[in-house]
TrEMBL record:
Alphabetized InterPro entries for the sequence: TRAIP_ubiq-protein_ligase, Znf_RING, Znf_RING/FYVE/PHD
Pfam entry (one): zf-RING_2
Record domain RING-type: where: 7-47
GO biological processes: protein ubiquitination; replication fork processing
Lineage: Eukaryota, Metazoa, Ecdysozoa, Nematoda, Chromadorea
Protein known as: RING-type domain-containing protein
Organism of origin: Onchocerca flexuosa
Keywords linked to the UniProt accession: Coiled coil, Metal-binding, Zinc, Zinc-finger
Length: 159
């Protein structure tokens, strides 16, 4: 991660042209430390009493093309890395969601297979029962025919 100056009060980036310092050496946004000093007389970081305030710090930096180029490259690489990590997190979340859905459908599929197996067994039992009833019906009809023949013989014998 690229180090950057940060105001300890508001935690925003501290631009060099907006900074003020306390006598203890801590730096802040000028507006942040002035607002702080309206309520407190101590440094927000170390709590030492503030007797003087450097209203604005002026930094003189040498322009160095190599340093700027490296800093820019590092910043770009950092942003690319952050974007890649964000994309990776999104892909991992999508994969986890897809895995959960797949597990749900696999469980539902297993339950349906069990139901199909049970229904097939019930169907076989029903077919068996129908065949048994057909057989009993055929036997009953044969017995009724026999009974009719015996009735006819009995009537013929009585005459």
């Amino acid at each position: 991660m690229i180090p950057r100056l940060q105001c300890p009060i508001c935690l925003d980036a501290l631009a060099l042209n907006e900074s003020s310092a306390t006598c203890c050496g801590h730096t802040f946004h000028q507006s942040c430390i002035l607002r702080w000093l309206k309520n407190y007389e101590t440094c927000p970081v170390c709590r030492k009493e503030i007797t003087t305030l450097i209203q604005q710090l002026f930094f003189q930096m040498e322009e160095n093309e190599n340093f700027n180029s490296v800093g820019t490259d590092l910043f770009k690489m950092h942003n690319e890395l952050q974007n890649a990590l964000k994309h990776l997190q999104e892909v991992e979340q999508a994969a986890a969601k897809a895995k959960d859905e797949a597990n749900f459908f696999l469980t539902a599929n297993l339950l349906l297979k069990d139901q199909v197996t049970n229904l097939e067994m019930i169907s076989r039992l029903n077919v068996q029962q129908i065949n048994n009833l057909k057989s009993k019906l055929a036997q009953q009809m044969n017995k009724e025919k026999e009974l009719e023949e015996y009735k006819k013989r009995l009537q013929a014998a009585e005459l």
